[in-house]
Specification:
Strand order of the largest sheet of chain C: 1-5
Distance between the termini of chain C: 76 Å
Largest sheet of chain A: 2 strands, antiparallel
Number of strands of chain C: 9
Oligomer: heterotrimer
Strand order of the largest sheet of chain A: 2-3
Number of helices of chain A: 15
Helix content of chain A: 55-70%
Radius of gyration of chain A: 21 Å
CATH topology of the largest domain in chain C: Alpha-Beta Plaits
Distance between the termini of chain A: 58 Å
Order of helices and strands of chain C: HHHHEEHHEEHEEHHEEHEH
Shape of chain A: globular
Number of domains of chain A: 2
Order of helices and strands of chain A: EHHHHHHEEHHHHHHHHH
Chains: A mainly alpha (334), B alpha/beta (443), C alpha+beta (287)
Shape of chain C: elongated
Structural class of chain C: alpha+beta
Strand content of chain C: 5-15%
Largest sheet of chain C: 2 strands, antiparallel
Number of domains of chain C: 2
């Protein structure tokens, strides 16, 4: 009887359901709630920034692949889309288009493709892009548009500071934390829902947590990194708040403002730049939490999540080498 | 909470289509090719020549060393020739080809089905019978059983562990054997227990076979010191190190054998084969093979003679589907892809798995995204992504330090890799190269 | 002004202290090496191919300097010229060796060896060889996955797309033997380069009997013994159903090539025959 040529390959002959593409599309799906919130508060601008960031990231990935790396194209694995969205989430919604493109160029071109593309970059590309922009264009990067519900007309040119910046400024001027909070226009509920000033994707803690739960459920991320970051920040700031509630902000305030949720759930959990073992992830998360609080409380910048993650990214290879999985049969060896 | 091993493991789709299908026998083939190397260790030496008349159960190849075993004719007829035939290994190996004429068994074989529970037989006699009957581990590793039944001096064995886990998806041969031959398996286990002087017999069965657990538990009550433990479904629980960890929470040291922690692990199929060899005087010349696959019309469990061509089993299971892309000997996780469907069934063939063409190619590969999944599923606590890279650049000393030799080749890493990287391909290669280097250093 | 002065003083002090430390350490941990090692190393090609069996050219140079005679030490990549240079430096005599070259002893191109299965695993001959005999019926032939190409430090071997077989670039090959050890099928052999690069060899290593060998591959050696009879110099032996030409005995008379019924014996770099038109396989290899 005639049969086709049989395929001969090594075991296993069955494969799991995960693929890079599925993981990346899962991350994109998880970012949708936060995207919707940003559209709700920033209007059409949110979509504009996202589209520009994604398009330029994919374009630069294609360009660098074509010119420098050669080999098969990797733009369809979806990682450039994720980088683009994360970059957009990390910038104010009124950012001029050319700054976004520069950010994408740095993120993809310098932080990712120079090291050999997906999987080889030591630092989170979106964050490198963001920090580059923050240092190069401090004015544009820190003039946050005031939120206004469903404002698609884009007439509102008013800008305001983030809660973190308000508190930082106030404390520097010798005001007490409670009086700053009293004069602050935002309640905790606003911070939870996203009715505060800030980068495009970081405003609503609820939407971000929703996305995080989705990724946990789909087993794209594990609980270690988000929980250890959030836990460390909570404990560290609670201690400070306990010491002097007038000069240090409350832990709830620290958790709900700034890029902490975005960083803990989406940025720090980037597989390429985070440790591999559970124990390593915990060390990494604690490190990010501590550095974040140090920068927020004593540093020059009001926000420190991006810097904290980038600093810990650099330590990841060490963590991987140090916290290896426990070998089977190692302990009882006589 | 059911017991399982604590670290790593995956849970592929079980797909046990042939579960509950009674063990059938098929028509005798017209010709069998019996390889002389069906086990780990030295190949056997043929003792028949072209033109010889043989009967079922007659010795046709003699053990070629301590780690080696006998091979018996599975049919009666004339030896056509001794020639090279493509076998499961993918290479042409020496086979004894016999033309089948009738079905005449040796007179010494007890063909009755009556249960014989009398195990009043000396330990040496058991071992000799096991060697004479050519019994090897039927789980797939085909390690000669008489070697495993000789406990080294200075070591004692507390537990005899019967591996009835059948953690490979699709396969049901052991499952069905337990349903039909529970008593025989118990007697066979007791014989092994006697040979190695174990205090207790533990039978580990995964929880996806509730009927087998029920029957085995009931039957076990009739015998002393046999305990059946249900286990949580998790691949690769059938690996002996994982099974020992799951059942009695002891870790076999790196590079060690189960006997180092006072255990010997045997497969249920082996227990049954030992029962037949010792109580019925029947050498190992037939075994239960699961023939299965998503595209197969009649997945089934077949009792087949060693040396039967794989295609005859497939025909019995409804014929080879049109869109077949891959035929695997064994299960999907550790089985070997066959390069032709004519290869003979050997003692180690636990299943024949048909995979349709669209599922037979490897997934698309991407760059490693360092997600660490391979590391989290590795039951031995290794770092497959790192081992693979080291294998590619041939860092053999580092590989040894990273304990590549502990790898049990279960394939969990390659199964789970989202980037579709052939991790196990390279790790196997690295292991082989390292072993070669270590051997040459020794000599 | 003070600031500049302070800075200058601090930096200079730092520089001096560090310089002293560096000097002391350099003196204390100085490794005394025979300067000849450097000289010898300068003679070597510096490719670190490992063809001499020692770790790199430096390792070879050390071994040469340490050794009493140059017996057993030979740089295949550099050949006799380099060995002579090294011998001059050390005041020893180097053994002369016939220049060699790698030959691929498989002629089973895609059109001659039908594929029976599809291989789908890591693209490495070594991986493939642990899995099965190959994707054709011939389990001795070239797997065509290019392990030899990967190990070649001289870029002297490549896989021909059309035939799927590796081809040795005669100008670049230094006979370092890296490909010989890399080939899991032991197909590649180092043979004497011969006069004017002329070589005759059996381009097949199968151990199957004639019939199955022929079934698997059109140009397999079928062990018909015709070449053995034709050879006037007893240079050809058939072992394990495969002929082998001893390059020490072969006088390049080309009689065996004519009688081979499958074209398994190849001749390289010979002028075209007067009577017959040059057969196509030879010119293909030449290219």
């Amino acid at each position: 009887m005639a049969i086709n040529k049989l395929t001969v390959s090594m075991s296993p002959h069955d494969y799991g359901k995960y693929s890079v593409k599925k993981i990346m599309s899962g991350v994109v799906l998880a970012m949708i709630p936060a995207l919707l919130v940003s559209v709700y508060y920033f209007g059409f601008d949110a979509i504009r920034v996202n589209l520009i960031a994604i398009a330029s990231c994919v374009f630069f990935e294609w360009l660098f692949q074509k010119i420098f790396i050669k080999g098969k194209l990797t733009i369809n694995d979806g990682s450039a889309v994720v980088t683009g969205m994360l970059l957009a989430f990390n910038v104010p919604s009124n950012l001029p288009w050319w700054i976004i493109v520069i950010g994408a160029l740095v993120a993809i071109g310098i932080a990712k493709m120079t090291f050999g593309g997906l999987g080889n970059n030591p630092f989170n590309p979106a964050l490198v892009g963001r920090v580059f922009l923050l240092i190069s264009f401090p004015v544009q990067m820190t003039s946050w548009p005031k939120v206004s519900v469903l404002n698609f007309a884009m007439t509102d040119a008013q800008t305001g500071a983030t809660p973190l910046a308000i508190v930082k400024e106030g404390l520097k001027n010798g005001e007490s934390y409670s009086s700053i909070m009293n004069s602050m226009p935002h309640e905790y509920v606003d911070m939870l829902m996203g009715n505060i000033g800030g980068s495009l994707g970081e405003i609503s803690a609820v939407a971000l947590i929703l996305g995080g739960l989705f990724m946990l459920f789909r087993k794209i991320i594990t609980w270690h990194i988000p929980v250890s970051i959030i836990g460390t920040v909570a404990i560290f700031t609670a201690i400070l708040y306990g010491i002097n509630p007038e000069t240090y902000a409350s832990p709830v305030f620290h958790l709900l403002t700034g890029g902490l949720m975005l960083g803990a759930i989406f940025m720090a959990t980037d597989m390429v730049t985070s440790p591999m073992t559970g124990k390593g992830m915990l060390v990494y998360g604690v490190g990010i939490g501590v550095i974040t609080v140090l920068i927020r409380v004593w540093g020059a910048y009001p926000e420190g999540v991006s810097f904290a993650i980038l600093i810990m990214n650099a330590v990841v290879p060490l963590i991987n080498n140090w916290l290896k999985p426990k070998r089977f049969g190692e302990t009882i060896k006589k | 909470m059911l017991k399982t091993f604590p670290k790593g493991g995956v849970h592929p789709k079980e797909n046990k289509f042939s579960a509950g299908k009674p063990i059938e026998t098929i028509e005798l083939p017209k010709q069998v090719s019996i390889p002389i190397a069906q086990h780990i260790g030295a190949p056997a030496e043929a003792v028949v020549k072209k033109g010889d008349q043989v009967k079922v159960g007659q010795l046709i190849a003699k053990s070629g060393g301590f780690v080696s075993t006998n091979i018996h004719s599975s049919v009666s007829g004339t030896v056509l020739k001794i020639d090279n035939v493509l076998d499961t290994s993918g290479y042409k190996k020496t086979c004894i080809i016999i033309d089948v004429e009738g079905d005449e068994w040796l007179d010494s074989i007890d063909k009755s089905t009556e249960l014989n529970t009398n195990i009043d037989i000396s330990v040496d006699e058991i071992r000799n019978k096991v060697l004479d009957s050519g019994i090897v581990g039927l789980g797939g590793a085909t390690f000669p059983t008489h070697v495993k039944l000789s406990v080294p001096l200075g070591k004692t064995c507390e537990y005899l562990i019967i591996n009835a886990v059948e953690c490979e998806p699709y396969l049901t041969a052991d499952h069905q054997l337990m349903l039909e031959k529970a008593d025989e398996i118990m007697v066979g286990s007791q014989l092994m227990q006697k040979a190695i002087g174990a205090n207790k017999i533990l039978i580990g069965i995964e929880n996806n076979k509730p009927d087998a657990i029920k029957i085995m538990s009931e039957v076990a009550k009739k015998y002393e010191n046999i305990e059946v433990s249900p286990l949580k479904v998790m691949y690769p629980q059938g690996g002996e190190k994982q099974l020992i960890k799951a059942l009695i929470n002891r870790e076999v040291p790196s590079g060690g054998l189960p006997i180092n922690v006072g255990c010997v692990v045997q497969n249920v199929g082996t227990a049954f084969a030992i029962y037949e060899a010792v109580q019925k005087n029947k050498p190992l010349f037939e075994r239960v093979v699961t023939v299965t696959g998503t595209s197969l019309s009649k997945p089934c469990n077949i009792l087949t003679r060693i040396g039967t061509s794989t295609i005859e089993l497939i025909e019995a299971a409804g014929g080879l589907p049109e869109d077949t892309g891959k035929v695997v000997s064994g299960g999907p996780m550790m089985g070997k892809a066959l390069s032709a469907i004519t290869v003979p069934v050997t003692k180690g063939t636990s299943g024949v798995l048909i995979i349709p063409a669209k599922k037979s190619s490897r997934p698309k590969t991407y760059n490693c995204i360092r997600c660490g999944r391979c590391m989290n599923v590795c039951p031995m606590g290794l770092e497959p992504y790192k081992l693979k890279n080291m294998c590619v650049v041939k860092m053999h000393e580092e590989l040894q330090a990273e304990r590549i030799l502990d790898c049990i080749e279960c394939g969990s890493c390659a199964y789970t890799c989202p980037a579709g990287i052939p991790l196990l391909d390279y790790i196997r290669l690295g292991k082989a190269n390292l072993n070669k280097i270590l051997r040459s250093k020794k000599s | 002004m003070d600031i500049i002065l302070n800075t200058l003083i601090t930096l200079s002090a730092l520089g001096v202290v560090l310089a002293v430390i560096l000097f002391v350490v350099a003196q204390k941990f100085k490794v005394i090496e025979d300067p000849k090692i450097d000289e010898v190393e300068a003679c070597t090609p510096g490719a670190n191919c490992g063809g001499c069996g020692l770790p790199g050219c430096r390792g070879f140079a050390e071994a040469c300097v340490k050794a009493e005679t140059l017996e057993g030490l030979y740089c295949p990549a550099g050949g006799n010229e380099v060995m002579k240079e090294i011998a001059d430096v050390l005041g020893l005599t180097a053994e002369e060796k016939e220049p060699q070259i790698a030959v691929v002893r498989c002629n089973g191109s895609h059109d001659k060896r039908r594929k029976t299965t599809t291989y789908d695993s890591a693209l490495s001959c070594a991986v493939s060889a642990t899995l099965f005999g190959g994707d054709t019926d011939c389990q001795y032939g070239c797997l065509g996955l290019g392990d030899c190409v990967e190990v070649c430090t001289f870029d002297a071997i490549y896989i021909d797309e059309e035939s799927g077989l590796p081809i040795v670039d005669e100008d670049k090959c230094t006979a370092c033997g890296a490909c010989v050890t890399a080939c899991p099928k032991d197909i590649i052999e180092l043979r004497n380069k011969g006069k004017k690069s002329r070589r005759i060899y059996v381009s097949c290593v199968n151990h199957d009997k004639g019939a199955p060998a022929k079934r698997a591959c059109d140009s397999a050696c079928i062990a018909c013994n015709k070449c053995v009879k034709a050879c006037p110099f007893d240079a050809i032996v058939v072992e394990n159903f495969c002929a082998y030409i001893d390059y020490e005995k072969c006088k390049l008379c080309r009689k065996c090539v004519e009688v081979c019924p499958t074209g398994a014996i190849l001749e390289l770099n010979f002028p075209p025959r007067k009577v017959k038109v040059e057969n196509t396989e030879t010119s293909e290899i030449e290219n």
